[in-house]
Amino acid sequence: MLETSPDRADAWFHALADRTRRDILRRVMDGEQSVSALARNYAMSTTAVQKHVGVLERAGLITRRRRGRETLARADAEELRSAAQLITELEQHWRERVDRIDALLAADPAPRRASATVDSQPGPLQED
Questions:
Q1: What is the distance between the alpha carbons of residues 51 and 126, in angstroms, rounded to a whole number?
Q2: Strand order of the sheet with strand 33-34?
Q3: Over the stretch 94-106, which tens digit does the pLDDT of each residue have?
Q4: Contact at 8 Å (CB) between 85 and 1?
Q5: Cα-Cα end-to-end distance for the chain
């Protein structure tokens, strides 16, 4: 299993939890773009887009550099591979658990109910 610090994984998931940040990431995966060019794609201020880019950068998913007065953003391919590997491992872990549950259910087709006494005649509920 990939060794990923909990803080690093938390930063990835926090960054990817927002739809706008996921879209920004997709756009910079296609190639480096200026933050001002990115901002034209959204109904928000350039400052708001810069904040989103900052969250992605702190998570390590993109890098920024200055070129004159422009700030350029691009995806960090290695970090994206690491995040994808973690997600793949988590998916595999849960698939294995579901497969074990499916196997248990298939081995015992009659699910057991919690033992409770049920009268055939309706009656008042009893308290302990």
A1: 60
A2: 33-34, 70-75, 62-67
A3: 889 888 888 888 8
A4: no
A5: 49
Question: Quick one: CA dihedral 95, 101, 106, 111, positive or negative?
Answer: negative
Interval 43-68: pLDDT, tens = 999 999 999 999 999 999 999 999 99
Q: Output the six-digit token pair for 65.
A: 């550099």
**What pTM value is reported for the model?**
0.69
Q: Which residue type sits at 101?
A: I
- In one letter, which amino acid is 23? D
Question: Distance between alpha carbon 40 and the CA centroid of its chain, in Å?
Answer: 26
Largest pairwise CA distance in the chain: 84
What are 116's two structure tokens?
């409770």
Q: Do the beta carbons of residue 57 and residue 12 sit within 8 Å?
A: no
Task: Please name every residue paired with 34 in a beta bridge, in sequence order, or none if there are none.
Answer: 72
CB 20 within 8 A of CB 66: no
Q: Which of 90, 98, 125 is nearest to 1 (CA)?
A: 90
Bridge partners, 33 (sequence order): 73
**Residue bearing tokens 């070129």:** 67
